[in-house]
């Protein structure tokens, strides 16, 4: 090999470890013997490159080399046989052999298939089954609280899908080895189930928190009240403070979406003061003679 | 046959990786009962996978593709070799 590992890798002596690493990667991609099964020269060069990287890729060894404590000889990496060596003509057949690259020639030509087929029973073929994709619509609350749903697969078999609490829209659940059958005794593929969460008429989800708009009456807003508020796990009694306005947000701690660690997000309740559909004369009368109300300008500072 | 222990030692692969590789179908142990055992070709293949992952920066998806293509290339090389030998043989016979 070249005496100077820096020259072999084509880097400067002051190159950073990152530069050395990417120089090695670039060369190895071109020269790796298993990617160049027919090229003896590539193998020789790869050995030199690998030895140089063995020395320079390790900062400690590199430091010792730079200080002259060790030299570049004898740094060659011991290596067992390369993968390609198991594919030589006459080598024993193994599960990775495949005729996939030329099977189409064999179908059409008797002479060729006779020659190619002679190399040994290459028909043995194992491949892991395909991954199968499903979409599973679930209700909002099923996704928030968790649920089990049964799906029927194309072959008629059923599969119980456990939807963990806190599952998000478009989250993909991987069910190991529930996909297509493997060939030649290889394991089946996985079932990949994409969850589609339908929206809820009351709740809005933001990450682990639930948001809800809660209509309250005028007396409740003015005087305060104790109200039942829906949450994903049932309704909860909440105190609305006196003088609570539209847009005021109250937090119900731990009433949001279940998390993996067992805790839950929060529910945020946005108040909305709602007048009755029909106003009676009493409230009109009150509004007319309510002095402070007449002077209150909620649009102050709103000029564009 | 090579035991799991010896396999891990020779390939310098962690046990977790080995399990994942078998699951992905990258490695197909010739024996699974009563316990896992491997052959020399599995060792060489695992070293190739390790080189791809650690030295060449190929990610998992890329490794599947590379293995698939490498296996096809080997199949092609073998059949080409067989074909060439057949041709050489018939030429000599004709002379």
Task: Explain the overall architecture.
- The complex is a heterodimer of chains A (304) and B (95).
- Chain A has helices spanning 5-9, 17-31, 40-56, 59-66, 103-108, 110-118, 140-145, 218-223, 281-289, 291-295, and strands spanning 132-138, 147-152, 158-163, 172-175, 191-197, 204-206, 209-217, 225-231, 234-240, 249-252, 267-274.
- With 304 residues, chain A is of the alpha+beta class.
- Chain A has four domains: 5-83, DnaJ domain (Helix Hairpins, Orthogonal Bundle); 89-118, no CATH class; 132-197, Sandwich (HSP40/DNAj peptide-binding domain), CATH 2.60.260; 204-293, Urease metallochaperone UreE, N-terminal domain (HSP40/DNAj peptide-binding domain).
- In chain A, the strands form four sheets. Chain A has a four-stranded mixed β-sheet with strand order 6-7-11-10. In chain A, strands 1-5-4 form a three-stranded mixed β-sheet.
- In chain A, a hairpin with a 2-residue loop joins strand 8 (225-231) and strand 9 (234-240).
- In chain A, helix 2 packs antiparallel against helix 3 (40-56).
- The longest helix of chain A has 17 residues, at 40-56.
- Chain A is elongated and about 105 Å long.
- Residues 119-124 of chain A have low confidence and may be disordered.
- Chain B has 95 residues and is mainly alpha-helical.
- Chain B has a single domain (2-94), classed as Multidrug-efflux Transporter Regulator, Chain: A, Domain 2 (Orthogonal Bundle).
- Chain B has helices at 4-11, 15-23, 40-55, 60-94; strands spanning 2-3, 37-38.
- In chain B, strands 1-2 form a two-stranded antiparallel sheet.
- The model of chain B has no long low-confidence stretch (mean pLDDT 85).
- The A-B interface holds A 24-25, 28-29, 32, 34-35, 37-38, 79-89, 94-102, 112, 115-116, 118-119, 122, 126-128, 176, 182, 186-187 and B 10, 23-25, 28, 30, 39-41, 43-45, 47-48, 51, 55-57, 66, 70-79, 81-83, 85-86.
């Amino acid at each position: 090999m070249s005496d100077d590992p820096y020259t072999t890798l084509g880097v400067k002596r002051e190159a950073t470890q990152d530069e050395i690493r990417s120089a090695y990667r670039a060369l190895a991609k071109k020269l790796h013997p298993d990617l160049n099964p027919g090229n003896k020269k590539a193998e020789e060069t790869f050995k030199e490159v690998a030895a140089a990287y063995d020395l320079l890729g390790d900062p400690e060894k590199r430091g010792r080399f730079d200080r002259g404590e060790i030299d570049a000889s004898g740094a060659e990496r011991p290596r067992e046989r390369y993968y390609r060596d198991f594919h030589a003509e006459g080598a024993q057949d193994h599960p990775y052999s495949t005729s996939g690259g030329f099977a189409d020639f064999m179908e059409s030509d008797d002479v060729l298939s006779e020659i190619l087929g002679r190399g040994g029973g290459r028909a043995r073929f194992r491949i892991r089954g395909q991954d199968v994709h499903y979409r599973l619509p679930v209700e909002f609350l099923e996704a928030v609280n968790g649920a089990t749903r049964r799906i029927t697969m194309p072959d008629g078999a059923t599969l119980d899908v456990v939807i963990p609490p806190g599952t998000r829209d478009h989250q993909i659940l991987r069910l190991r080895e529930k996909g297509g059958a493997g060939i030649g005794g290889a394991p089946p593929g996985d079932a990949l189930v994409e969850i589609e969460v339908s929206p809820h008429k009351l709740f809005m989800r933001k990450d682990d928190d639930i948001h809800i708009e809660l209509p309250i009456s005028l007396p409740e807003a003015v005087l305060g009240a104790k109200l039942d508020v829906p949450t994903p796990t049932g309704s909860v009694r909440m105190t609305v403070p006196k003088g609570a306005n539209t847009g005021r947000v109250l937090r119900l701690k731990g009433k949001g979406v279940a998390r993996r660690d067992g805790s839950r997000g929060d529910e945020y309740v946005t108040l909305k003061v709602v007048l009755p559909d029909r106003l009676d004369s009493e409230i009109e009368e009150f509004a007319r003679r309510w002095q402070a109300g007449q002077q209150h300008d909620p649009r102050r500072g709103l000029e564009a | 046959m090579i035991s799991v222990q010896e396999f891990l030692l020779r390939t310098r692969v962690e046990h977790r990786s080995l399990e994942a590789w078998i699951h992905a179908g990258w490695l197909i142990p010739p024996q699974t009962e009563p316990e896992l055992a491997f052959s020399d070709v599995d060792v060489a293949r695992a070293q190739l996978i390790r080189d791809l992952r650690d030295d060449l920066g190929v990610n998992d998806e890329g490794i599947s593709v590379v293995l698939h293509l490498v296996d096809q290339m080997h199949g092609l090389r073998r059949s080409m070799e067989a074909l060439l030998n057949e041709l050489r043989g018939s030429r000599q016979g004709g002379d």
